[in-house]
Amino acid sequence: MLDKKLLSILVCPVTKGALIFDKEKNELISLSANLAYPVRDDIPVMLESEARDITLEEKEHWQRK
User: Fold this and answer.
1) 3 CB burial (10 A radius; 0-12, 13-18, 19+)
2) Number of separate domains in the chain
3) What pTM was computed for the model?
4) Which of 51, 2, 9 lies closest to 30 in space, CA to CA?
5) How far apart are CA 36 and CA 45, in angstroms?
6) Which of 16, 18, 51, 55 is disulfide-compatible with 35, CB 3.0–4.6 A?
7) What is the tens place of the pLDDT at every residue in 15-58?
8) Which residues contact 63 (CB under 8 A, 6 or more apart)?
9) What pLDDT does residue 3 have?
10) What does the alpha-carbon distance between residue 26 and residue 30 come to, in Å, rounded to a whole number?
């Protein structure tokens, strides 16, 4: 589980926008970049090359929350 203080200061490296922590998938979601950054061993991997594109359905899901 990521530290809440760490989560509050992390931003998307591409857009500098806010991130949402997806506990189920262990990812940090950037709605502004449409990317999901993996978290491995409680360490966010904030590299665009390691991120995956999120689907439209995923984006809509997080926008509703």
Assistant:
1) exposed
2) 1
3) 0.91
4) 51
5) 10
6) 51
7) 999 999 999 999 999 999 999 999 999 899 999 999 999 999 99
8) 31
9) 80
10) 13
Contact 46, 2 (CB under 8 A): no
Answer yes or no: is pLDDT of 1 > 70.
no
User: Residue 8's pLDDT is what?
Assistant: 87
Q: Which domain holds residue 45?
A: 4-64
Q: What is the CA radius of gyration of the chain?
A: 11
Enter the tokens of residue 15: 């857009």
Higher per-residue pLDDT: 3 or 12: 12
**Domain of 20: which CATH number?**
2.20.25.10
CA dihedral 34, 57, 45, 24 (to 10 degrees): 160
Three-class DSSP category at 2? coil
